[in-house]
């Protein structure tokens, strides 16, 4: 399949696919960080954050699948190697063992800020390519992160 099978211009969609693969790489690192936070949370906020991190990594897992399937819908292969995720992601891995609860929240907030930045880039590129499917999908993902950014910032006592 190629982009023209769904009435999109192959050349115009190429930047969208490239950004989606970059987004996919970043999301995989974010996902693993969420898993590490879920597994290694300790302290007074354990019950609250253990559940929240699980909610977020479950959502991230579904999001990753949708991103990869969108890349395939546009006629290209999604990245699927951890080596690619690590080399292409601007989100960095961290060691969550021994990390305190609010440092975990800060790390997740940093990831979300980067993912939202990438989402805004994808929205511009998908708009320029008349790719409403990608635009709608990414907009939905961004809204989820914007709301959770507000919630985590409120939890951590940030403005």
From TrEMBL:
**Keywords noted in UniProt:** DNA-binding
Q: Which InterPro entries match?
A: DPS_DNA-bd, DPS_DNA-bd_CS, Ferritin-like, Ferritin-like_SF, Ferritin_DPS_dom
GO molecular function terms attached to this record:
DNA binding; ferric iron binding; oxidoreductase activity, acting on metal ions
Keyword set includes Transmembrane: no
**Domain Ferritin/DPS as annotated: residue spans:** 18-157
Gene3D superfamilies to which the protein is assigned, alphabetical: 1.20.1260.10
Tell me any Pfam family this protein matches.
Ferritin
PROSITE patterns xref list:
DPS_1, DPS_2
* Cross-referenced PANTHER family: GENERAL STRESS PROTEIN 20U
Q: Which family does it belong to?
A: Belongs to the Dps family.
- Protein known as: Starvation-inducible DNA-binding protein
**Species this chain originates from:** Dyadobacter psychrophilus
